[in-house]
Design brief:
There is one protein chain. The protein has 261 residues and is α/β, with parallel strands linked by helices. It has one domain: Decaprenyl diphosphate synthase-like (Undecaprenyl pyrophosphate synthetase, 3-Layer(aba) Sandwich), CATH 3.40.1180.10. Helix content is 42%, strand content 16%. The strands form two sheets. Strands 3-4-2-1-5-6 form a six-stranded parallel sheet, with helices on both faces. Strands 7-8 form a two-stranded antiparallel ribbon. The structure holds farnesyl diphosphate. Farnesyl diphosphate binds next to α2, α3, β2 and α4.
């Protein structure tokens, strides 16, 4: 569902690209994949692919703003990514910090609120400090929430949530799905309706396992550094072609889905 009534400018943009303005997903989550292969194909180091991946991050943010997507979550660094060579991990962290410093003013001018989820305490001090500053300075902005998943994995997040629930001493019979929702790092975010993964891989790789329960998945062979607005809009059109039933039945009288689960 669109977060707000689409402006005339947005209506025109979406109509031009065959996107229905009334059913733009509110939250899109992306597994940005293929940077390493993209670089290798060009005879370059993997880091070269990550650097070009920043252009695609910018394109995804712009496309979200233009389309009326309200939340964009990017899987920027997984818990498993710590197992990569130190040189690549350091380069990725450095790229994150430099990008935040370089892009912050521009993001702010566009109304982007920056947020981070994951085991942030495991990030280098400089990254933690830069993220904290970006989060504080953009906390009041309401155009788009850009959520960076960093040192994130869904299994880590679920274990943390369970630990916290146990610490709080909740009775088993008082625990339901809403309890889990409230204890996840995404507690104040709606679940993504659309998950995009680039590079032709068709897995969710420990990403938002709980939150993606009803999401539509769009897999594209495009490598992340080549991902642009056209690919983002194709994913939204693909999403809009699917029927979203939530395990329920279509109420043909009201043209709305009855949710059962
Ligand atoms: C996956 O490609 C990508 C990553 C692990 C890192 C993503 C990081 C960026 C796009 C740049 C920095 C991001 C921000 C938000 C500033 P891969 O290395 O797994 O590629 P491969 O599957 O081809 O090896």
């Amino acid at each position: 569902m669109a977060a707000e009534h689409p402006t005339a400018e947005r209506q025109t943009f979406l109509a031009k690209h065959g996107v229905n303005a009334d059913s733009v997903p509110q939250h899109v989550a992306i597994i940005m994949d293929g940077n390493g292969r993209w670089a290798k194909d060009r005879g370059e180091e993997r880091v070269f692919g990550h650097m070009h991946g920043v252009d695609s991050v910018r394109a995804a943010v712009e496309a979200s703003l233009k389309s009326g997507v309200r939340y964009l979550t990017l899987y920027a660094f997984s818990t498993e990514n710590w197992n990569r060579p130190k040189q690549e991990v350091d380069a990725l962290m450095d790229l994150l910090v430099r990008t935040l410093v370089h892009e912050l003013e521009d993001l702010m001018s566009k109304g982007v609120r920056l947020r981070a989820i994951g085991d942030l305490s495991s990030l280098p001090e400089a990254a933690q400090a830069q993220l904290k500053e970006a989060e504080e300075r953009t906390a009041h902005l309401t155009g788009l929430d850009l959520v960076l998943a960093l040192s994130y994995s869904a299994k880590w997040e679920l274990v943390e949530a369970v630990r916290q629930i146990v610490r709080e001493g909740l009775a088993p019979e008082d625990i339901d799905t809403a309890t889990l929702d409230r204890h996840l790092t995404t507690a104040d975010l709606p679940d993504p309706e659309l998950m995009i993964r680039t590079s032709g891989e068709r897995r969710i790789s420990n990403f938002m396992l709980w939150q993606l329960a009803y999401a539509e998945f769009h897999f594209t062979p495009v490598m992340w550094p080549d991902f642009r607005e056209a690919h983002f809009l194709e994913a939204i059109r693909d999403y809009q072609r699917r029927e979203r039933r939530f395990g329920g039945l279509l109420d043909t009288n009201h043209n709305e889905w009855n949710q059962e689960a």
